[in-house]
Amino acid sequence: MTDGRPLIEATGLVKRFGDFTAVDGIDVSVRAGEAFGFLGPNGAGKSSTMRMIGCVSPVTAGRLRILGMDPDRDGPAIRARLGVCPQTDNLDPELTVAENLTTYARFFGIPRKVARARAAELLDFVQLTERAGSKVEPLSGGMKRRLTIARALVNEPDLVLLDEPTTGLDPQARHLVWERLFRLKRQGVTLVLTTHYMDEAEQLCDRLVVMDGGRIVAEGSPRDLIARHSTREVVELRFAGESQEAFVDKLAGIGERVEPLPDRVLLYVHDGDAAVATVHERALAPESVLVRRSSLEDVFLHLTGRTLVD
Ligand SMILES: Nc1ncnc2c1ncn2[C@@H]1O[C@H](COP(=O)(O)OP(=O)(O)OP(=O)(O)O)[C@@H](O)[C@H]1O
Fold first, then answer.
1. Which residues form the ABC transporter domain (predicted)?
2. What does the pLDDT look like over 251-280, one tens digit per residue?
3. How many CA atoms lie within 13 A of 57 on its CB side?
4. Is the CB of residue 41 below 6 angstroms from any atom belonging to ligand 1?
5. Residue nearest to atom 3 of ligand 1 (CA)
6. Cα 227 to ligand 1 centroid, rounded to whole Å
7. How many CB atoms neighbour CB 248 within 10 A?
8. 21 CB under 6 A from ligand 1?
9. Residues of the domain holding 269
10. Residue 288: what pLDDT?
11. Is the pLDDT of residue 1 over 60?
């Protein structure tokens, strides 16, 4: 239906609220079958972008095409083919778990019998079959999020939008959500998600844009972004007492870059163990030393001078 064209095409996309520009002229292109992410801190403009893509918030300026259609003109037709998992759960507490799906299916004109069968399949997919008859309220946060994901799939969408799918969930619940999203990916479903968790972006996204202050500061696969904007390894050093900043000069020349944070100093290096040996040769005695691989957090820090999650 989209003739091999991107499912989402945005050029110079802008969202303003009064004088405030939340999304400041971004270009995005999402292809069928990929998992695409918007990564950025709170306030970066991710949700505002998602809401324009979801056709629930009008575009201020720029061009946006979803599934080849114009949200201004074809909002209802686009929405019929989207699955949306919003940031805050908006399940109906009056209904049972299964009814939340069947009732939602009716908005899309899905016949009752088909809706019931689909609800059963989806509850199985999100591992909530046993809770089908219970009310929503007693469900855990992770269960509610899985139910919201199931609800987003009721209309067999071409494109699934997930706004911070695991924010507020504990680690175990997050992993369960990730695991279901992996399965959807394997089934070829196109996923677009926002997140401020770099590990989530690294795990789930084939491609992503890093957003800050309404703009895109980098774009690529997690691996490309790390290769382009960081070194292979990072040494995290924590020094006792004095400010970490005081050690920057003493560490100069070790690796590519020295980055002081309030509680530690990061050394961007290709060989972490060799760098640690040099630190000891200079008679510096950090309280703790950690050698790790570079992550998207390092990419964000390099591009913006700030950490992604405080
Ligand atoms: N309806 C609105 N009216 C005024 N300002 C808004 C509105 N919605 C969002 N904003 C502002 O736009 C900026 C971007 O918000 P947005 O929700 O898109 O960011 P985000 O990257 O999704 O962050 P979060 O993770 O906090 O949702 C923020 O500064 C926010 O306060």
1. 8-238
2. 999 989 999 998 899 999 999 999 999 999
3. 18
4. no
5. 17
6. 30
7. 13
8. no
9. 231-293
10. 94
11. no
